[in-house]
Amino acid sequence: MEMDLFEIIDERSADFSKGHRLIAQYIKEHYDKAAYMTAQKLGEKVGVSESTVVRFAYMLGFDGYPALQRSLRKLMRNKLTSVQRIEMTSDIISGEDILNQVLLRDAENIRRTLEETSKTDFTNAVNAIIRSDTIYILGARSAEPLAKFLNYYFSLMFPRVRQVRNTTTSELFEQLMRINEKDVIIGISFPRYSRQTEQMLKYAKNQNAHVIALTDSDASTLAPHADDLLLARSDMNSFADSLAAPLSLINALIAAVSKSCEQSVRESFEKLEKIWDEYEVYSKNK
């Protein structure tokens, strides 16, 4: 797994100039504020020039200050508490047109997800799901609605789909007790990463199940346990993470799986439509 920014700073600190040490100290103590500062503003804050800040970024191995800033924002999202997220909302969203800003940021998350998700891993995940005996789906905390959505549609398509319900760790293991090499588990987690989801994927991997991780980065704690890594951007709009791109990726997964076993899915939904109609599940348009 790649080093995070703090680890890089610690590794190279012996070679820092006085100015670089000031920048490093400020970043480590106030990473939530530094993540949204320009190089000029950061330099002014610690008493060094803008060019010193830029040279600091190059010294750490980045191709410029924006790359260092992106690395800091990635690290920051997994370290911030909910209170810190609320406090920094005004740094992320400014002005009155919040609707426009949030939707544009969601659109950018989807665009970057399309660029960064491995097409090979996506195809492998689809094939593994189709071949599996049982599909397990796990998403804790804010990822639980995503797991529930995926479980709903896969349960209509396949006979053996189980959403692993959030409960105590021991009960989670009990729900996964029979997972084996014929099964697939799909784990969903975004910063701050769920420790339980990580543990369950590790356990499933040790049982030789096929592990699919839907997360935000190859630095995610889920990544080391994944056979297929599906990456979706979930950059913060406020204290809440954006789930637009993860949900879009899940929609793509559902569509690809249904396309790959189109005949059986068609038969399932034809049967369901008869049931829905007979028992008046849906209101009829007049």
Name a few traits of the molecule.
single chain, 286 residues, alpha/beta, five-stranded parallel beta sheet, 8% strand
Describe the structure.
The chain has 286 residues and is of the alpha/beta class. Helices cover 58% and strands 8% of the residues. The chain has helices at 5-12, 18-29, 31-34, 39-46, 50-59, 65-79, 82-87, 89-92, 98-116, 119-131, 144-157, 169-175, 195-206, 244-260, 262-278; strands at 135-139, 161-163, 184-188, 210-215, 228-231. The protein has a five-stranded parallel sheet with strand order 2-1-3-4-5, sandwiched between helices. Strand 3, helix 13 and strand 4 (210-215) form a beta-alpha-beta unit. Helix 4 (39-46) crosses helix 5 and helix 11 packs parallel to helix 14. The protein is elongated and about 75 Å long. The N and C termini lie far apart (58 Å).
Give me the secondary-structure category.
alpha/beta
Distance from N terminus to C terminus (CA atoms, Å) equals 58 Å
Number of strands: 5
Largest sheet: 5 strands, parallel
Secondary-structure element pattern, one letter each: HHHHHHHHHHEHEHEHEEHH
Low-confidence stretches: none
Globular, elongated, flat, extended or rod-shaped: what is the shape?
elongated
- Approximate strand percentage: 5-15%
Radius of gyration: 22 Å
Percent of residues in helices comes to: 55-70%
Number of helices: 15
Main-sheet strand order equals 2-1-3-4-5
* Mean residue pLDDT: 87
